[in-house]
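If your schedule permits, I should be very grateful for your opinion on a structural question. What I wish to show you is a protein chain and, alongside it, a tokenised description of its three-dimensional fold. Would you kindly read the sequence against the tokens and tell me how you understand this chain to fold? Here, with my thanks, is the record as I have it:

===
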Amino acid sequence: MSECPICGRPSDHRGELCGYHQLAMDNLHEGQETWNLALEIDWDSYLDHLYALDELGQWVREVIDYIRSGNSP
């Protein structure tokens, strides 16, 4: 079993991320659709808006850092 590249936990059965970070990634993708309909923003702008929120959870913040480091969303 492989490890999550973000935290080192065992990877989720669906991919390379652990269950926590995979859920955060899934939620990012789902949320982007809603934000795009309301604000018509691209993926990078969406991530910038979210990252600026004080309420943003640690796992989502870590996933955004992971994406920004050049790893595919």
